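subagent[fold] <- orchestrator: predict structure for attached chain, return tokens only, no commentary.
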Amino acid sequence: MLKNIFDTHAHYDDEDFLLDLDDVLTSLELKGVCGVINNAANMESARQSIKLAEKYANIWAAVGVHPHDVKDMTDADIDELREMSKHKKVVAIGEIGLDYHYNFSAQDVQIKWFERQLELANELGLPVFIHDREAHADTLELLKKHRPKGVIHCFSGSVEMAREILNLGMYIGLGGAVTFKNAKTPVEVARYVPLDRLLLETDAPYMTPVPFRGKRCTSDLIAYTAEKIATEKNISAQELCDATKNNTLTLFSKIEKF
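subagent[fold] -> orchestrator:
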């Protein structure tokens, strides 16, 4: 069994975990998962993420508003996120970014609040979790403008874009997509990204890796993602987990070293 699995991006406040959340979270350590960062989607999700981090020793929180929900954001929300970020277990601003696939919020509104949250992260000295779906050009432009610390979560860009992200000093987050059938580009990216700039994630309960696609994802299933990436990089899956845990502790410096 793999150990030192650190899931840098999950959503355990999601309703898919309503019935058995405690069972899921308390079993993770026995399955080799040493830590999870629970990412917020909106303001209520941010509050719930903090509550999870307070209750479970191996959970940390990222607070922020996803592009789907920024249509409802206000200046008061920025102030509340600033206050939330003082919590010792809030380690990042996220997840934030742009989503031009669904456009649940207008694109100009997405850009406005993405910038506001990037500015907040830089003000606080915190890294960011970036959501980028079919918005590569605008995402890259804003990252070059604000130059935050952080990670592109569930990276879906090309090797060329990965190179640009790495040149900004950021990390690449990869999850279950690398195991999907016909996942050519994610596998190329996995092969390309240096071991010291890679993070593992699930996006639980979403993006479940093969062979469990179609079922709810939990952090222990990251082992299948790790095996696939390790094969592509010609290293052992345990070496990958050890390295990505160290990368996590380096980027998210508020997490106590363990």
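orchestrator: received. Logging for downstream: The first strand starts at residue 5 and ends at 10. The chain has one domain: 5-251.
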